Amino acid sequence: MIEKRELLKVEHLSVWIQNGSMETCVLRDVSFSVREGERWAIAGESGAGKSMTMNAIAALLPEGSTKYDGRILFRLPDDSWQDLLTMPYRQRRAFLSEQIAIIFQDSINALNPNERIRKQWGETVRLHRGNLPPGEVEEHLLAQMEIFGIRGGAETLRKYPDQLSGGMRQRIAIAMALESRAKILIADEPTTSLDAISQRNTIEFIRMLLENEGWTLLFISHNLGLLQSICDHVIIMKDGSIVEQGLAEELFYCGKDAYTRKLVEETLNIMGEEEL
Q1: Is 39 a domain residue?
Q2: Measured distance CA(154)–CA(141) in Å, rounded
């Protein structure tokens, strides 16, 4: 069996945010390594540092008021490693746009309410695939709709976002995010704004895409039940630090840290033991 290659390494990452004369440490000595095809969860309560970790990796923190220590390493095609934190900010953002696709918590609200789906999705296709003729863009969109289970064909493309269900908008947002052909998908609380049925459908949908395309996943959520259903590795965070990490099954059922066991117990109380 061929061992999977590491794609991303975060090594002793600490982050400080400057606010006026105040400097706040938001991440402390965060380290983990992700191999190709793995599905990692980053879990913890609100304020634990989950989204801050994603923002640091994806260069989404404000350039002028953020200070870093440590390394964020990406594997290049020649198998060498690039430390993102040594790159100029604009170069880092351009590099990451080709390496990472991101589904934000408010992705369904990120769609422009004043533009038809065809226009904004088509612009995303042209951004990542060049200035294709309109006919080829239309053909691509319809093909992607089949893959992503987006019903309605050309009629759906003519609609505005508020004319579609939340689940449909989320699928379109995911499809648009994945136009980048990135190697790594980061999903930051992608089901928070959906009802329970749409949440499960969206998770099943993401799992199907991962199996078909072989993408690597970083899934950020406070919902351990959802994470356990899709991820094979878990990082538990608290107050900007990692308290425990490892295989999902081991952490969910045999977590060593008291905080991990507390999160699992709370999830069992809310969802019922059969759900986890």
Answers
A1: yes
A2: 9
Tell me the C-alpha distance between 196 and 213, whole Å: 26
Query: What CATH number has the domain bearing residue 249?
Result: 3.40.50.300
Residue 81 in domain: yes
How many structural domains are present in the chain? 1
- pTM exceeds 0.85, yes or no: no
pLDDT score, position 101: 86
- Residue 127 resides in a domain: no
Spatial separation of the C-alpha atoms in residues 222 and 42, rounded to whole Å: 8
Return the ∠ at Cα 80 (arms to 74 and 81), rounded to 5°: 30
Please write the tens of the pLDDT for every residue from 7-30: 999 999 999 999 888 999 999 999
The owner of tokens 């259903």 is: 229
Split the chain (276 residues) into runs of 10 and give each run's mean pLDDT.
84 94 94 95 92 94 93 94 94 88 73 93 86 86 87 94 86 83 84 71 78 86 79 95 94 88 81 51
25 found inside a domain: yes
Quick: pLDDT tens for 128-137: 877 778 889 9
Residue 46: give the domain boundaries.
6-108+184-197+214-275
